[in-house]
Amino acid sequence: MKLYEKLADDIETLIRKGVYRPGDRVPSVRQASQQHRISITTVIRAYLLLESRGVVESRPQSGYFVSARMGDGGADSNELRTSRPIAVSATVDVSRLVLSTLRSIGTDDAVPLGSPYPDPQLFPYEKLNRYASAAGRKKSLWGVTNALPPGTPELVRQIARRYLENGMAVDPNEIIVTVGATEAINLCLQAVAKPGDVIAVESPTFYAMLHAIERSGMKAIEVATHPEYGIEIEALAKIIEAGPIAACMVMPNFQNPLGFQMPDERKRALVDLLAKAGIPVIENGVYNELYFGDSHPTTLKSYDKKGTVLHCGSFSKSLTAAYRIGWALPGRYRDEVEKLKFLNTLTTSVIPQLAIAEYLERDGYEHHLRRIRKNYAQQANLMKSMVMRFFPAGTRTSTPMGGYVLWIELPAKVDSMTLYQLALARGITIGPGYMFSVSDNYRNFIRLNYSTPWSPEIEQAVITVGKLAASCAK
């Protein structure tokens, strides 16, 4: 156990034993440093950890005080708690769990409530395949050089036009086409950090972000994240003050698994904070097109004045997952990302690029998106109402503003891995909370996918998972 973790545990024990009561001031950072003969930095990290657990709260120019929540036992509500903060630096190792979970999702006849992928029934595969077939017959495209970075001019142009249609002008020369958003995220991370560096992420966070950190030999530090407005900027600022952070990775729009849309003023504040600290931010925007509101959400990239936002996108969640086409807008790191793309995978397949470019130009992408958004919004409401009706008392849910996943907090006695195994034995998959963190703080959370059109089979599967959760809660 690290020194700051031990100090945090010791103080929390004193609080739970009543030595410090709600509202009491705990020793100042300087006092604690002198009492325990440890550095001020170590004390600050311990207090940040306590704050992330909800045990203490900071008051400007006054110090740290025992949180009032330590005395009320927590209020009951159908909504998620306003914050489930964590700030634990650790080497990431969740890939084995995720891989085994994804394999189970592919089981024949399994109900894919745990799938991270959108249901393909709403995607225009026949049209895309016709365009791909036509492109494949062109002998001029059979060589490798046609697919070299940054990507085919046809697709790059269409991506730039799509951003312009959504209110943000981008330089087409900045765009680099990748093998899905996963590669884009990995390349951007490699461009801004090195093995051993610490990367700040949301908590909970999408496991693809954790995989990128693990693959690069880096460490993740989790930052408290509000289920309605995103990463806690104040908590992030304190973490930055406490120790070196190489980069920040966030999903500000329809975050997986929480589903929130970060307000514009907080997006601007986050970009400003990181820019002043000289810290690049990798923005995962794969769900940006799947909004439930009246207008397309803004991006961190739209507030970037110094080129420190590396924005990543993909067609996998909105058009086709089969083609694995994504892209990056890496700002000042553009040349480095292009070089890494060449060194990592050399090319992105040219035929899928041309097929998507042709579809975007000819076949009404916006009409297709409106249909998906309407379906997902309706299914989100159905899923949430079914969960609140059939899951055990004390269950809380997120309120998705877009995307296709619902985050669910179950009673504390429920272990999501046990529930996962019980559901799988009945031909139903779920996403256990362990996948979304480097800690076990989400052991009683699950993620459900509502992209599949509602049916008696889906409805019965949700009811079954609710009954299983109730049995685990006893």
Automatic annotation (TrEMBL):
It holds the Pfam family GntR. GO terms for molecular function: DNA binding; DNA-binding transcription factor activity; pyridoxal phosphate binding; transaminase activity. Keywords: Aminotransferase, DNA-binding, Pyridoxal phosphate, Transcription, Transcription regulation, Transferase. The keyword Nucleotide-binding does not apply. Residues 1-69 form the HTH gntR-type domain. The keyword DNA-binding applies. In the C-terminal section; belongs to the class-I pyridoxal-phosphate-dependent aminotransferase family. PANTHER family: HTH-TYPE TRANSCRIPTIONAL REGULATORY PROTEIN GABR. This is HTH-type transcriptional regulator NorG. It comes from Paraburkholderia caffeinitolerans. The gene is norG_1.
